[in-house]
From TrEMBL:
Pfam family, one: RibD_C
InterPro entries linked to this entry: DHFR-like_dom_sf, RibDG_C, Riboflavin_Biosynth_HTPR
Keyword annotations of the record: NADP, Oxidoreductase
KW Chaperone (keyword) present: no
GO molecular function per UniProt: 5-amino-6-(5-phosphoribosylamino)uracil reductase activity
Keyword NAD: no
PANTHER family in the record: 2,5-DIAMINO-6-RIBOSYLAMINO-4(3H)-PYRIMIDINONE 5'-PHOSPHATE REDUCTASE, DIHYDROFOLATE REDUCTASE FAMILY PROTEIN (AFU_ORTHOLOGUE AFUA_8G06820)
Stated name of the protein: Bifunctional deaminase-reductase domain protein
């Protein structure tokens, strides 16, 4: 199996349903779900970052989170845990393109029947819906799009028309004015399609977009001890945790730590995202 995480700190603020005993034994603690927001799904994100805050080497063969975690089994187990409680998984178009062989399915990286049992016990479908964020509607060929699952595309009116020509089974969500409207799309996912919990596995730009729209509740962050750096041109830049948005220094978003765990030299952080009402992108 897998050795338990070492618990360094935990201050669980939520009264909601927790984990089964077998998962608590590995996680060395609990993860209780907070109350659902009124007008959208509960949203959390999961990242593995290097010591210097990079999420990818951004070069062929070394472009995924596995290169940053160095294949950590505990990071894989945690990925399966956060997927197990998600009705849907959100990915950006760039992430979909970079991980063509990935299926975003339970058991893909850590096969353990307890994860499927948790999904069933909490009333979730065996396969989470896939929600793709793409303004252009240009989608790469991907196995994930051919699986028997519900597929959503958050896009513009033009993007929806383009995507439907190739994938007519996509459910396209656009804003009232035909533009990409993330707030309206998440509200529609909740009220029209019953998506209660949403895991974001998009990259730094997707995370930045969610932050800018005040749409993140919790973050799971695996902190790897490696140092990735960021080379000078002409080499490709190596993306950081948040890309495409910056916040004014007067009132930036911040984390409120819920728990901290350790395995060898890796740290596993869970935190609330607190976004002050006056936090504004610059």
């Amino acid at each position: 199996m897998i050795a338990p995480f070492t618990l360094l700190f935990e201050e669980e603020p939520n009264p909601g349903p927790g984990l089964p005993e077998a998962m608590r034994a590995v996680y060395n603690g609990d993860w209780r779900l907070p109350p659902l927001p009124a007008h959208r799904p509960l949203v959390w994100t999961n990242f593995v970052v290097s010591h210097d805050g990079r999420i990818a080497f951004n070069q062929p063969g070394w472009n995924g989170g596995n290169a940053i975690s160095r294949g950590s089994r505990h990071d894989h187990w945690l990925m399966e845990l956060v997927r197990a409680r998600a009705d849907a998984i959100l990915v950006g178009n760039a992430t979909l393109r970079a991980a063509r062989r990935h299926r975003w399915a339970p058991g893909e990286v850590f096969a353990w029947p307890e994860f499927a049992a948790l999904r069933a016990a909490e009333g979730r479908p065996a396969l989470p819906a896939l929600v793709i964020l793409s303004a252009s509607g240009e989608l790469p060929a991907a196995v994930a799009l051919e699986l028997p699952r519900t597929l959503f595309l958050l896009t513009t009116a033009e993007g929806a028309e383009r995507a439907r020509q190739r994938y007519p089974h996509l459910i396209c969500l656009t804003g009232a004015d035909g533009q990409l409207d993330l707030i309206a799309a998440l509200a529609q996912l909740r009220h029209d399609y019953g998506i209660r919990t949403l895991l974001s596995e998009g990259g730094g730009r997707t995370y930045g977009t969610l932050l800018a729209n005040h749409l993140i509740d919790e973050v799971f962050l695996t902190i790897s001890p490696i140092i990735v750096g960021n080379p000078s041109p002409p080499l490709a830049p190596r993306p950081g945790l948040v890309e495409g948005v910056g916040f004014a220094p007067q009132s930036p978003p911040y984390l409120r730590l819920i728990s901290l765990r350790r395995v060898d030299d890796m740290l596993f952080q869970r935190a609330n995202i607190v976004i002050p009402p006056d936090a504004k992108p610059v």
